Amino acid sequence: MQVRFGVLGPVDAWDAAGAPIDLKGPKHRAVLARLLVGRGRVVPVDRLVDDLWEEPSPGAVGSVRTFVAALRRALEPQRAPREPARLLVTEGPGYALRVAPDAVDAWRFENEVAAASTAPPHEALERLDRALGWWRGPAFAGIDDEPWTRVERSRLEQLRLNAIEQRAEARLTVGRASDVVPDLDAHVAEHPWREEAWRLLALALYRAGRQGDALAVLRRARSLLLEQLGVDPSPRLRRLETDILRQADRVGDGLGSPGPQRVWAETAAAFDRTVASGSGSRLESTVGLLRSLAVTGASGLEAAREQRIAAIAAAEQLGDPDLTARVIGGYDVPAIWTRSDDPAQATRIVAAAERALAALRPGSSEATRARLLATIAVESRGTRAARGPQAAQEAERIARRLGDPALLAFALNGVFMQTFHRAGLAPERDQIGAELVALSARHGLGTFEILGHLVRLQARSALADFATADQHATAADRLAERHDRPLVGVFTQWYRALRLAATEPSPQAAETAYRNGAAQLATAGMPGVERGLLPLALLCLRVSHGEPVRFDGDIDWGPYAPWARPLVLLGRDRPAEAGAALRQTPAPPRDLLFEALWCLTARAAIALDDRPAMERARSELTPAANELAGAGSGMLTVGPVAGHLDDLDAALSRSR
């Protein structure tokens, strides 16, 4: 058995027999904690010094080495004097902890909670009880409140609060409503701004036969939100109140009536009895389920993503090209974000769609062909492949010729995803959104109507038309409530943070809104949207408000690291490294953040007087001179492109 580490409480370690290891003094624990935050990555000695002391003494580096040596003796007491360390290793300019993923309680906690999100209710409850039982107090208790601990503490605390609510939902699912009430009552008292906690408490009270108490809880939540934050309750909270008043029998919030559960169970049983287990019909029916699952929330989206590729593989094994094409093209789930949640999977889906296209028999359905082409266009988003735009255009031509509204909506989604080949295309995307809204409203395509409003929200934000963007945000929220599409609220919440960033003179309100949006996004099951977005939004916020670009600790910039790095290094007064980083910065991907990333490159180029980089940035940004940089994402902005162009022109004239 290996050495185990704990950070969900005081920073501790235990040997293979489970006995506590003496970690010496507070600085020894701080060094260990800092390396654990690094998650196996090398932490340079100078970073350790900066993170452990506000004003390091001349002997700080030597002190770090002394602490490391003492920790090595404590962690590996049987190691021979000249034998290399196996746990706390020296590598390059610093140190790293080489431990298994299950050796750290925080890592086990994250994995267990993630597994619970897709497990059956009873198993999920066991996993969540076990995971929450590993907490021994506040994370990193006893370690000074430094930036690197503050970020990790906050992240783990958000995961803990989410897990508490996830456990409450699992208890409700298995019929333990009365058991949930006391815990949730204490939870909302301690965390009154968590709307999901209020919703679960009200639902638990209702199922426990306390309808009046449930309504009182919902009204108390509304009063707190309105009086303290000036915001209305979320659509889910409002819908629950309406359902309780009507004593409605709804699947979405599950007030407790067995009606829909019995219908589902009996229908599923009939399907199992009637449809052969290895038939293509099962696969086609599965795709319909996956389509619905993908828009129900985080765990549903993740499960749909996983099973979609399995369904395609199963269809290909049956050797029926038309069936395979229908399985691939039947997953017409609208997509609004231009970075895939799983790029490797997207590549596999594109390859499978191309194989299906090539294998279609003469006389195969033109609609099936168009769906494959639209799939290629959507899944090729964010790449520079010429095939994506070609597929989008062909799918649109076929759909218009056939006059199929649902097919045209899917094809227009593909066209939208391929409308990022240069800057300044917000007006074109606005037209696509307008057609999607009108087409979908006429033909009852609710999910694509939501997509159209979100597309227009993005485009009108890019054009600084927030009055119209507000209307589309409201319309998207209203439709999301009607059609039970909880993930829509993630995008509208981020839009409102963007609006604050673009219109408020002080950045504080926007930063708070961004952090709240990030907390919601963390549980939405959309890694392609989430990873690196919060630090990027904060970087853009500081740049647009002319504030210093200073970020402490290890920041996960995700895919945006190449464009953030030069400015971050400049903020640390390391111009030589910033210049080298700028020279290695690639052209941004063709997506919703194209203009924003070029503006960040422009700011670094101006600061470093890098004329070639300034000229490239100016050339790429000029077509978007009338837009707000990055606002077309509906998530963040670096301010007006025109302002960056003016600064580039001034800097270029000085450098002649």
Topology, number of strands: 5
Shape: globular
Helix-strand category = mainly alpha
Question: Strand order, biggest sheet?
Answer: 3-5-4
* Count of DSSP-assigned helices: 30
* Mean pLDDT over all positions: 89
In percent, how much strand structure appears in the residues? under 5%
Give the % helix: 55-70%
Radius of gyration: 27 Å
- Give unreliable regions as ranges: 249-253
Distance between the termini: 66 Å
Largest sheet: 3 strands, antiparallel
Could you characterize the architecture of this molecule?
The structure is a single chain. This protein is mainly α. Among the domains are: 4-106, Orthogonal Bundle (Arc Repressor Mutant, subunit A); 175-266, Serine Threonine Protein Phosphatase 5, Tetratricopeptide repeat (Alpha Horseshoe), CATH 1.25.40.10; 521-654. The protein has helices at 26-37, 45-52, 60-75, 105-116, 121-132, 147-173, 177-190, 195-207, 211-229, 235-246, 259-274, 280-293, 298-318, 321-329, 343-359, 366-379, 387-402, 405-417, 426-443, 446-462, 466-483, 488-503, 508-521, 527-530, 533-544, 561-571, 575-584, 594-608, 611-621, 641-654; strands spanning 4-6, 12-14, 43-44, 88-91, 94-97. Strands 3-5-4 form a three-stranded antiparallel beta sheet. Strands 1-2 form a two-stranded antiparallel sheet.
